[in-house]
Amino acid sequence: MVISLFLFPSTPSLFINAMSIFNLLALITSGYMEMIGKNKQYAKFCDASDSNKQKDKEKCKLPSRIGMLMFYTPSFLVGLVSFAFFPHQDPRFVMVISVLTIHFFKRILEVLFVHKFSGYMMLNVSITISLSYGVSIATMIYAQYLSQESSEPAFDLKYVGLGMFLIGISGNFYHHYILSSLRKKADREYKIPKGGLFHFVICPHYMFEIVEFVGVSCICQTGFSFCFTLGTVFLLMGRSYATRKWYVSKFGGRFGKDIKALIPYLF
Known about the structure:
Blueprint: H1 14-35, H2 54-59, E1 61-63, H3 64-85, H4 91-113, E2 120-122, H5 123-147, H6 158-181, H7 204-220, H8 223-251
Antiparallel strand pairs: 1-2
């Protein structure tokens, strides 16, 4: 098979193989749920006022900044611990741990110093996403560790992947900065984003995140990383579709009809 030229051979680990399938299906399902309007309750999609269970929800909500820190901190710690837990590994393995740790460290810094938050999120959502990220990243690192016992793929993509990762993380940060600059300190209202690729798509930060994780997959070249990235693509497609729909419903004719969700001119 052609794919075998680009990936390490499948590991004999039942856990890794099961997690690859589970992760892919779970992320595709999450993307589909986003697309049909059953959105994860955080950011602009968190609104407890519509429900009769408002009082219960009030007890289970977190400030958005705290919730977002809960999203990313465990995965960052997984990356840090991996350097100590798997010392003296080959360059590819060190590169995998490094880019994953950098990704989540950058997210934490953005939460602390870049993003401007005005709302809250539900505690159960924060816990679920935090666990999902943490388990996925730990599994990706473990799958990479097991792959070192196999022969290298015919095509070495790790430096191509590093280039894509750097492009993705830079583009993602740039568009996050644009979003944060739309709000003044006490401003709690959403605005139509302008600048960068926001002229073409409403979620260029998601587009660059996909580029980033495609880069991670090229560095890893394992079946699990490929499944995780493919699932992430479906999830972000669903979330970006829901985001565009939200902006259209909120701003109506003021929102440019030619602005797509994720991919300029296409989707």
